[in-house]
Every structure is written in structure tokens, then in C-alpha cells.
């Protein structure tokens, strides 16, 4: 039994943030950055400045573009492996502040203790019950659609070093929540 579990672990791969940016429906990224621009203006400005600096550009190079061009440039830049940590952080902020209801729904469905806003109290569980997970995914899809659910679950799976086997497997096998 242990051998077959090891085989599953070696086959399952956790998707990194930059890979999510490479494969996700661009409208989700547009929505995220539009939300950020409207609701978290300082974060948006800092993101532009940080990514411009990372690409050895002055922020004005980006800010002089139209908003759709700025967002397209941000998305393109976050597809780079060197921007993985920044991209993951942006996803986390987006879900913690912009999609709080979704986090609460998932935590409640999974029985994960949280502060009422989706921020986990204490440690994340070491394992995720496969049956609870399937029910939680079905509920998230019903409430938020397949694409946003796929994005959320992929980002949630980044919250531990190697993800959760049950979630990684579900992300790979359930076509409703496939990133690509």
C-alpha cells in the first residue's frame, strides 16, 4: 500500500502561481486586477512598481498605458517564473479580500476553523477528506462557477509546500476545475 501511495505522490504535481497565470482564463486575471485597481489601489500601484522594477523598467512605462494594456502587461509579466512569489501573494490578497465569501464557504464545507472571514485559525489540516472535498468543490462551483473555483482551489493548494494529495488529484482529474 505504501508503495502505491508513493507512486501517486510522484505522479501528482502541484501547479505554481506563475503556471496558473500561464494557463488561466485571462478574464479571471482581468477581473482580479480590476478589483485591485478599484478596491486596493495602493496594492495595484505597488504591484505595477514592483513588476516594472523587476523587468528593469520605470513604473511610468506601465502607468502611461490604458488600463486594459496595463492589466495585459501585468498578466504577461506574472507568467514569468521569476515572478512566482509576487503572483502567489496577489492571488492570496485577492481571495482574502476580494473573494472572502468563497473562502468562508470552503472552510465551512471542509470543517476548517477560521475567523469568520476565511482566515484560518491555527494550522491548516495535514490532509483533506476526499468526500468533504468533493462536496465542497460542488458547492463552490454552484456558487462561483467552474473557472473561479479552479483558480481558488489551485491557489489554496499552494498553501502547503507540496499541496494536499486529495486536492492535487482532484485538480488533475476533475475537468470542471482544470486550469487550462
SSE layout and pairing:
Blueprint: H1 2-11, H2 17-23, H3 26-39, H4 41-54, H5 59-63, H6 67-78, H7 84-98, H8 100-110, H9 130-144, H10 146-156, H11 165-173
Helix pairs in contact: 2-7, 3-4, 3-6, 8-9, 9-10
* Total beta-strand segments: 0
Strand content: under 5%
Low-confidence stretches: 1-10
Order of helices and strands: HHHHHHHHHHH
**Helical percent range?**
55-70%
Mean pLDDT: 91
What overall geometry do the principal axes of the alpha carbons give? Answer: globular
What does the largest sheet look like?
none
What are its keywords?
single chain; 180 residues; mainly alpha; 68% helix; disordered N terminus
Could you describe the 3D structure shown?
This protein has 180 residues and is an all-alpha fold. The chain has one domain. The protein is 68% helix and 0% strand. It contains 11 helices and no strands. It has helices spanning 2-11, 17-23, 26-39, 41-54, 59-63, 67-78, 84-98, 100-110, 130-144, 146-156, 165-173. Helix 2 (17-23) crosses helix 7 (84-98), helix 3 (26-39) crosses helix 4 (41-54) and helix 3 packs across helix 6 (67-78). The longest helix has 15 residues, at 84-98. The protein is globular. Residues 1-10 have low confidence and may be disordered.
Amino acid at each position: 500500500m505504501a508503495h502505491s501511495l508513493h507512486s501517486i505522490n510522484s505522479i501528482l504535481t502541484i501547479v505554481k502561481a506563475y503556471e496558473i497565470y500561464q494557463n488561466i482564463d485571462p478574464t479571471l486575471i482581468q477581473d482580479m486586477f480590476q478589483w485591485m485597481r478599484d478596491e486596493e489601489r495602493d496594492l495595484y500601484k505597488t504591484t505595477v512598481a514592483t513588476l516594472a522594477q523587476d523587468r528593469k523598467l520605470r513604473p511610468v512605462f506601465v502607468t502611461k498605458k490604458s488600463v486594459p494594456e496595463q492589466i495585459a502587461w501585468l498578466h504577461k509579466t506574472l507568467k514569468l517564473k521569476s515572478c512566482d512569489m509576487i503572483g502567489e501573494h496577489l492571488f492570496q490578497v485577492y481571495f482574502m479580500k476580494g473573494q472572502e465569501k468563497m473562502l468562508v464557504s470552503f472552510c465551512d464545507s471542509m470543517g476548517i476553523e477560521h475567523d469568520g472571514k476565511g482566515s484560518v485559525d491555527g494550522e491548516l489540516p495535514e490532509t483533506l477528506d476526499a468526500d468533504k472535498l468533493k462536496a465542497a468543490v460542488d458547492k463552490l462551483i454552484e456558487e462561483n462557477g467552474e473557472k473561479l473555483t479552479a483558480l481558488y482551489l489551485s491557489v489554496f493548494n499552494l498553501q502547503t509546500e507540496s499541496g494536499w494529495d486529495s486536492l492535487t488529484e482532484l485538480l488533475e482529474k476533475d475537468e470542471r476545475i482544470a486550469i487550462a
